Amino acid sequence: MNEQALKAKAIIENYSGPELRIMEVCGTHTHEIFRMGIRSILPENVNLISGPGCPVCVTPVGFIDEALMLALEKNVTICTFGDLVRVPGSETSLAGARSQGARVQVVYSPLDAYELARDNPDEQVCFLAVGFETTTPAACIAVDKARENGVDNFTLLTANKTMVNAYRALKGSADAFLYPGHVNAITGTSACEKLAEEGIYGVVAGFTASELLTAIAVTITRLTEGKPFFENCYPRVVTREGSVKGMRLMEKVMEPCDAEWRGLGVIPDSGLRLNDEYRNFDARFRFDIPEIRGKGNPACRCGDVLQGKCRPSDCPLFGKVCTPQHAVGSCMVSNEGTCSAYYQYDFILQQARQQAAQK
Ligand code: SF4
């Protein structure tokens, strides 16, 4: 551990003020904090809450139902990242649809889906565009290429989201946010500076142990000072202006829209959809998909988990009916999901300890 990390660790361990609630918004942060054992050094009065920063987790059930309709009723080949295949829709998942004969293909980038469409002109190919500002530019590149090269059998089903208005919707859920460094690498920091003026505080955090410890220590210190704050603790990657190229690309291809977040409902201006120039590449428009209200398992508490209102272990299904092998909700399916993190790093460990104690 370097000197900076040791100093940060000491600040965290020695904190003895009133209870602080810090929300790590990013699913990767949730997993890294567990993996590095950072939770074990937190004093009781520092409460780390996991938030809605996993794109698969916040995607509503209705989106899966739309993808199922495309695959099963409209004869469209669905291309997606792996996690989404196992997320349950109202009746089944994309994996279930595949066993019914639907074409569902796992890809590693939107460009793979574009190339599949280009090489199979008689097949309709749709990429499930799920993600935050980090991954949206790649989907924009794919659809821009399709338009430029006349690959008309390629579409996107969009569930792209932007973070700033989600922070506003979550105001009051925590005393401060650990902002996801990879999102700020694209968006820059000016929006977060403005949030601080609105009473929403936070620190941009990187992903190494030293960066995470520093971000948590700075958050504790600044909250203790009791003044409005925003701080960029990931300056080796995040600049004030962010990725100008990435932002321009998103502005060229997409436009803001209201978006439904699992657990948080519809947040105004928190999503992105294809703009008028690219409308023909929008799967909802091309295949006349109606608005679908999905129905999740009523016992699943993903919505509360995503808002930091409960821990996964408060869900009656956690570790019993719902496991990574048989996931009931999106937070257990996704590699970045909070339930999956608690299962991998906390539940399994506790089970092993109990078994060892019984021997
Ligand atoms: S443990 Fe499973 S069912 Fe419970 S909230 Fe998490 S994903 Fe949903």
List unreliable stretches of 5+ residues.
none
Bound molecules: iron/sulfur cluster
**Topology, number of strands:** 11
Tell me, briefly, the overall form: globular
Oligomer: single chain
Count of runs of 4 or more consecutive helical residues: 17
* Computed CA radius of gyration, to the nearest angstrom: 21 Å
Strand order of the largest sheet: 4-3-5-6-11-10
H/E series: HEHEHHEHHEHEHEHEHHEHEHEEHHHH
Rounded to the nearest angstrom, the distance between the terminal CA atoms is: 36 Å
For the record, what CATH class of the largest domain applies? Alpha Beta
The CATH topology of the largest domain corresponds to Rossmann fold
Q: What's the architecture of the largest domain in CATH terms? A: 3-Layer(aba) Sandwich
Percent helix, as a range, is 40-55%
Features:
359 residues, alpha/beta, 2 domains, five-stranded parallel sheet
Describe the model.
The relative contact order is 0.16. Helix 1 packs across helix 12 (209-225). The chain starts with a helix and ends with a helix. It has two domains: 1-296, 3-Layer(aba) Sandwich (Rossmann fold), CATH 3.40.50.11740; 302-358, no CATH class. The strands form two sheets. Strands 4-3-5-6-11-10 form a six-stranded mixed β-sheet, with helices on both faces. A five-stranded parallel β-sheet has the order 2-1-7-8-9, sandwiched between helices. The protein contains 17 helices and eleven strands. The chain has 359 residues and is of the alpha/beta class. Helix content is 42%, strand content 19%.
